[in-house]
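Methods: example folding runs. The two proteins below were folded one after another, and each record is reproduced exactly as written to the output file, sequence line first and C-alpha cell line second.
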Amino acid sequence: MMNLPVSLGFYKSLEARMAKLPEREWMHTARLLASEDLYFLLRYILSTRSWVNPEDPTKSFWDHPWLLDRCREVQFDSDRVLDIWARFHCKSTIKTFAESIRRILKNPNLTVGIFSVTKSVADEFVGQIKFELESNELLRGLFPDVLYWEPQKESQRWTLEKGFVVKRNMNLKDATVRGFGLLDTSFTGHRIAYAVYDDAVNESNVTTPDMVDKTTKKWELSLATGMPGSTESYIGTFYAHGDTYHDIAGRGIRLRLHPCFEIDYKKSTFDPDTGLPLKLVHDRSKGGVLFSQEYLEALEKTMGTGTFGIQLLCDSNAGVATGFKLEWLKYYGQDPYDLRPHVNTIITVDPAGEKKKHSSSTAMWVWGLGKDKNYYILDGVVDKLNLAERTDKLFELVERWEPDDVRYEKYSFQGDIEHIRYVQDRRNFRFNVTEVGGSLSKDDRIERLIPLFSSGRVYLPEHIFYYNSEAQHVDLIDQWVKSEYLTFPNTQHKDGLDSMSRIAEPDMQMPWPRRTDYGKRSDAWRRELHKNSTAAPGTTWMSQ
C-alpha cells in the first residue's frame, strides 16, 4: 500500500509537483492516486473538484482537515460500520458516491448494490454515479480499461432501472451498480459483493412501530444478497429513537457518530454493547466541525431544536420532551427477597395478545410497597408469551411473592381473565385479580409514573436475570432502562412502562403497610411483645 499524504499541506506540495510533470507522467500519477487515495479522487478528479466553500467562495470546499479525516476513515475503515453523520456533511458524497467509484476503478468486476428506503431514493445515488462515469472526460481518460467512452452504445447494460455495467473480464449476471428499495424491491436472485445502505431510514418509515419493524425485516432479507467475502457499508442520519439504524447498531455493526459539533466524551454516556448514545453532550466552544458556529446556530433557531438535534447533532433524543431522566433512577442494592418481609406486594400485568418476533411483549412487575411510602421493584417478566405461558408466569410470581392484589390490563378481545380463573379452579389456587382499563392513551398512562420517579420514590434492584422464551439470558432491568425508560416517548415498545403505569391508577386503593402492621414481619418476638402490650391489666411483666 502506498504512503498517502497526511495533511492538506502535503496535497498543496503534491499539486505543485504534479503541475511540472509531462502529460503522460501526470496521467500515470493521477491514475494511481485516483484509485488509491479517496481524498485525491474527490479533490482533483471527480466533478466534486469544482466545489467551493459556501462560506468563503475563494477557497475549495475540500480544503478542510475534517473532510480529509473523513475520507481516510471511509477508505480504510468503513466495512460493517454504521456512519451516522450530520446532515449535509458530505456523508453520501464521500461514502456512497466517491468510495463506490474508487472501488470499481480498482476492481471492475465488483458488483455494488445501493439499498435505500425505496428504489426511487436508491436510483438517485445510482444516477449520480452513472452520470459521473459517462460524463467525466478526465476520469474516462485515466481509466480507459474500466470506463466506456460512449457507454450508452458500448456497454451491455447502461440504465438507471436495472443498473449499468463497466468494462469487466467476468461474465456476471448482476450489474456493476444497481439500486434497491428496502420497502419496494425484491432481492431474490441477486448477488452483491459490496452493499451500500444509504438513506435506508427516512421520515417515511419511522412513523409507526410496524413500519420500523417492516424496514428492519427487509434489511435482514437484503443481507441474503451477499456471499462469502462480501461486505456492507452503512451511512445515514437518525430520524427517531428506535428506528432501524438502532437495530443495526445492536446487531454487531459498529456505530460511528460525526455530528456538526464535536462530542464531549467526558460528559457523554454510551451503551457499551451498541455504542448508541444514552446521553450526548456537544462541545460548541470550538465552533462547527465543518461549518461556522454562527451558521449552525442560526440554522438551529430556524429548524427547531428537535429536528436540528436529530439531523445535525446525531442525537435521536435531542429536542424531545423525554419523560424520564437518568438521574431519577435509584437502586436499593439488596437481594429483593431480603425486602419481602418488610413490604406489601402487588403485581401489575400488561399482556400482549400475540407471540411474534416484532410484536409487543407481555410485561409483569412485582412491586413492594414499603412503610416509607416508597415503591420497590422486586421481580418481573418482559417476554413474548402466549396465553398459557403468561398464565403460568403469573402463577409463578403469585406463589413466590404472595401479592395483595394483581392488576391485570383488560382488553375486550382477550380472554386472559377468564382463563386465569379457569386455571385457579383447576389448581385450587386462587388469588385476587383486579381488571384495569380506562380511556387514557398508553403515553398518558405512562406519564403518571413521572412524579414517582422524579421524586425518588421508585427503587430498582440492580439486576433481574431472566431466561426469555428464546432461551436468551437477559437482565430485565438493564434492558428496560435502555430500551424504554431512557427513550420514552420515542421508544418502539413501551410494554414494561405501560405495565408499571398500572401502579398509579388514581381510583384504586394501595395496600400500604402500616407501621404497626407486623403480620408480614419475620421477627416473631416483636409480634409477641405487641400482643403482651395489649393484654389485660395485671398479666404483663410490668405487673409482676
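Second run, written to the same file directly after the first:
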Amino acid sequence: MKSNRSVFARSLIALLLLAMSCGLVAAQSTGKAAGPAALRALKTRPERTNYAETSRYQDVIDFMNTVDAASPRIHLTSYGYTFEGRALPLAVIGAKDASPEAVKASGKTRIYVQGNIHAGEVEGKEACLELLRAIALGQHAGWFNNLVLLINPIYNADGNEKINLTNRGSQNGPVGGMGQRANAQDYDLNRDFMKLDAPESRSFELMMARYDPHIVVDLHTTDGSAHAYQLTYAPPLHPLTSQSVTEFLRNGLLPAVTKVIRAKDDMDFYYYGNISGGARGGMGGGRGDMPGARGAAAAGRGDVTTGRGTAPPARGAMPGGRGGVPGERAFFTTEPTARFGINMVGLRNRMGMLAEIFSYMPFQDRIKAARRFVEEICNYAQMHAAEIRQAAEEADHQSIAGKEVALRGRAVRSAEQVEILMGEVTTEKNPYTGANMRRRISTRTPEKMYQYISFEPSETTLAPKLYLVPATLRFALDRIEAHGIAFSRLDQTAKLQVEQYRIESSTLAEREYEGHRMRTITGKWEPAEVEVSAGTIVVPVDQPLGRLALMLLEPRSEDSLAAWGLLDDVLERVKPEFYPVLRTPEAAPASK
C-alpha cells in the first residue's frame, strides 16, 4: 500500500469505510505495491477475452485498486452509491490526495471523465481503465502540471451487472453481452439530471459541488445513422448556457481535437447527430431516444429492461423544438433539455461534453476512439488550462437576473449546406445468439445537407432577482438542496410586491415517462402584493447556479419541478389559480 494511504485515511475515513465494504481497498496478499512489470501485465477484461466480454463491476474495482497501489500519482476514493448499494469509484490524479479540499487547493483545471452511464455502452468504461493504466506507467505526466483528472469508469454500476446477450444486439460486440441501458430502478440516468430520482444522480451532484470540475466528459455509444464518423460529440445545447462556455468548446477545444485526431489517427470526429428525412442512410440502430428518423427507431432501445416508461414520449410530446423543413434530409443533433447530463452541466457554468462512439465499429476500435478523445481533450486542456478556468469564472459572474433569457429552444438551421460524411454497414452473425450484428464498412461519402447542431430561444422569460418557494413544498426544497443551489429563508411574514403566475391550463401527459407523467402549464406572470409567510425559501437568481435555479422553478421550463410532477400535491389536488412559486425583481427583506 502507498505511503500516503494514512493521509487518505485521516481525511476521508467515512469514504474509506464505504470503500472497504464495497471492495475498493486493494488486496495486500504480498504486502507490496504492483511494479511496472505487473502493470504491463495488467489487462482489462476485453483484453483478456480477445474483446469478447466487457468488464464487470468487480473487474473495474480490482483494476483500479491495482493502478492505485502501483502509482503514487493515483488516489482512489468513492463519491456515492448506486441504488443497489455499490460504491461509485473515483480515481483522482494530479492532487496530493483524493479529497475535494486537496483537489481544489491544487489550483489546477479539473476534468471529470465518466463512462457507462448507459451500461450497454461500454467503450468509455474500458477506455478509462486503459487510460488509468497508462498514467500508472508514467505516461501523460505533463498533464498534471496543470490538470487534475477525476475518473469514474462505471457510473451505472447496477445496470452494468445485468449482462444479457440480447442487450444492444445489433451492436458489433462484445459478443459475450453487456449491461442494460437503465439503472436498477429502471431509470435512464441521462434523463435524471434535474428530477434526481436516482441515488447515482444525487451522488453526481454531490461530486459536482465538492470537486467542481471545469470539464465533464460523458462517454456514450451511438447506434444511430450510418454516418462515417468514428466518434461524434456535443457541447451543452440549452440556449440559456453561458456563451463563455459554449464558445470555448465550439470555437476552440472541439475543432482542435477533431483536427489532431484526423492527423494522428486518420479518424473522423464531428458533432453528434442523426439523419432525418430522405430514404438513404437513416436511423441504423433503433435506440429509441434519438431525434433522427423517429419512425425507424420505433422498434426499441436495443437493450432489455423492465419497461418503466423509459422510452420517450410520442414524437409530438418530445421536448426540444427540433424544427426543420418537413421532408428535408438533414443532420440533427439531440435535445437541448436540462435533463440530459451535458446540458445540466452547461447550466452549472461548466463545460459538458457528450461523446458518442459509433457502435458498428469493432469493439476494440471503439475503445480506442473513446480513449483518444479523452487524451486529446486533456492535451488541449493542459495547454489552455488557465483559459478554461477563466471561462468558468466568467460564467459564474454573469448574472442573468433582470435579463430576457431562454426557457426553451428550437434547432437552428445552418446558413448553408455542409458536408456530412456518410458511411455504410454490413451484417455478421453473433456466434452465440445467431443474431445479426452490424459492422461498419470503411467508406467516407460526403453528402451536402443542412445541419441543426445548435439551438436558439423559442420561448423566453425576464429572469427575476428571487424566487419565493413555500416551505411546505418539500419536494421543491429537497431538489434545491440536492442540486446545491444557494437559498435562505424569510425570517418574518411580510407583504411583498411580487409576480405570481396565473395558470391558464395545466395538463398531464397521457402516459408515464421515466416514472412520471409530465405536466405542461400555460399562463402568464402578473404583478401582485402577496403576504409571504416566514420560513419561505428565498432562492436568488444572482448566484453561480442561477441558470439551474431558473430551469427548476419556472413553470414553463421543460424540466421544472412542475413539469416532472413534483408539485402535483398542490397542482393536482388543489388545482390552484396561481402557480405556488412566486418571483420578484426586488430584494427580499430580512432574510437570514
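Comment on the second run: The chain is about 30% helix and 25% strand.
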